[in-house]
Amino acid sequence: MMADMNLKRERAVSDQAVLFETIGDHIALVTINRPEARNAVNAAVVNGIDRALRETESNDQIWAVILTGAGDKAFCAGADLKAVAAGEAASLMTKEGGFGALTRAHRTKLWIAAINGSALAGGCELALACDLIIASQHAVFGVPEVKRGLAALAGGIFRLPRALPKAIALELIATGGVLDAERALRFGLVNRLTREGEALTGAIEFAETISANAPLAVRESLAVARQSYDLDEDALWALNDAAAVRIMKSEDFKEGPRAFVEKRPPQWKGR
Fold first, then answer.
1. Is 96 a catalytic residue?
2. Which residues pair with 111 in a beta bridge?
3. pLDDT-derived band of residue 264, with 50, 70 and 90 as boundaries?
4. CB-based burial label for 31 (10 Å; 0-12, 13-18, 19+)
5. pTM metric for this prediction
6. 220-230: string of b/e by CB count within 10 Å (b at 16+)?
7. Which residue in 21, 36, 55, 125 is the catalytic one?
8. Each residue of 100-139: pLDDT tens digit?
9. Rounded to whole angstroms, how far apart are CA atoms 192 and 132?
């Protein structure tokens, strides 16, 4: 099903810095809403993302989440340096979720970053914390912290080498330079490119494709796949086998083959 920006969108949570909406039946849209500050992360953004994260995790009807930034200039410029200069750096993270309430957060739902401009510093790290990235052709990525005597300590210095060829990742980290969208796609950092201004539409289409699948199977698969870099094969087999047991006990495990035999779309329950 193609994404339609006129789909029913129900406002669930709204504040000045972060908007939370549902699109259709199973997709949540989280928008950092500070375009005048290039969507930089301040305390209000952290609180908004934290609330959105809790809502998506607790709502069984939400199967995929899209994170984006308002406007067409920046997905997110990272930490709000005005807040940092005012001694408010601690307010830019949570104990459980890390920077922006997301970079260390435990999540069971799939998150897609829709990059509609620059994703720099902490903004790049928020994108890296998501599972998939859809970017417009004018998007750029980078961790320029070293230019200010800092480092990309919200996951950038180890997630970039996992997402990119080693030499390219080390170049970005050491030079503070940027990676344009075309190269990001070529190197596998980005899943899809869209025309300028259409990253969100592309992300919705991607989320609709994912939401057509059995949500429990997707969540269980992601839970194992996300740890594939961190655990040895024996530990991963143990996680794999435990996931298999939970999936095979679910209603959806029976529904999938039944729908195939009956030649009809499956009616997923997520349980």
1. no
2. 65
3. confident
4. buried
5. 0.89
6. bbbbbeeeeee
7. 125
8. 999 999 999 999 999 999 999 999 999 999 999 999 999 9
9. 9
Which of 75, 92, 74 lies closest to 83 in space, CA to CA?
Answer: 92
Residue type at position 94: T
Amino acid at 83: A
Per-residue pLDDT tens for 158-209? 999 999 999 999 999 999 999 999 999 999 999 999 999 999 999 999 999 9
Catalytically annotated residue among 145, 198, 208, 220? 145
Token code pair at residue 116: 């509609």
User: 258 is written with which tokens?
Assistant: 């039944």
Q: Pick the closest to residue 123 from 28, 40, 190 (CA basis).
A: 40
125 tagged catalytic: yes
**Are residues 18 and 48 in contact, defined by beta-carbon separation less than 8 angstroms?**
yes
Q: How far apart are CA 111 and CA 97, in angstroms?
A: 14
Provide the terminal-to-terminal Cα distance of the chain, rounded to the nearest Å: 24
HEC profile of the chain:
CCCCCCCCEEEEEECCCEEEEEECCCEEEEEECCHHHCCCECHHHHHHHHHHHHHHHHCCCCCEEEEEECCCCEEECCECHHHHHCCCHHHHEECCCEECCCCCCCCCCEEEEEECCEEECHHHHHHHHCCEEEEECCCEEECHHHHHCCCCCCCHHHHHHHHCCHHHHHHHHHHCCEEEHHHHHHHCCCCEEECCCCHHHHHHHHHHHHHCCCHHHHHHHHHHHCCCCCCCHHHHHHHHHHHHHHHHCCHHHHHHHHHHHCCCCCCCCCC
Dist CA 124 CA 164 (whole Å): 13
Q: Which residues contact 38 (CB under 8 A, 6 or more apart)?
A: 73, 74, 76, 77, 118
